[in-house]
């Protein structure tokens, strides 16, 4: 979840701590607990999350059009 713990929050914590990252977005497809996502990030970064994800989606679409994926 973007706010509050999600079903993969413990794994998200592990990844964030292991990488010493400020924030982590973990998206899981067909995992052992089903699909889901967890976000751990400071509030300021969370505020920018919609724009970051839109930019990522645009990059993926552009790469698909160019046959890069």
Counting H and I runs of at least 4 residues, what is the number of helices? Answer: 3
Number of domains: 1
Strand content: 15-25%
| Mean pLDDT figure | 91
Query: Major sheet: order of its strands?
Result: 1-2
Task: Give the helix/strand class.
Answer: alpha+beta
Cα shape: globular
Largest sheet: 2 strands, antiparallel
Oligomeric state of the chains in view: single chain
Low-confidence stretches: none
Distance linking N and C termini: 27 Å
Order of helices and strands: HEEHH
Number of strands: 2
| Radius of gyration (Å) | 14 Å
Helix content: 40-55%
Structure description:
The protein has 69 residues and is an alpha+beta fold. The chain has one domain (9-65). 48% of the residues lie in helices and 22% in strands. It contains three helices and two strands; from the N terminus they run H-E-E-H-H. A two-stranded antiparallel ribbon has the order 1-2. A hairpin with a 2-residue loop joins strand 1 (24-31) and strand 2 (34-40). The mean pLDDT is 91.
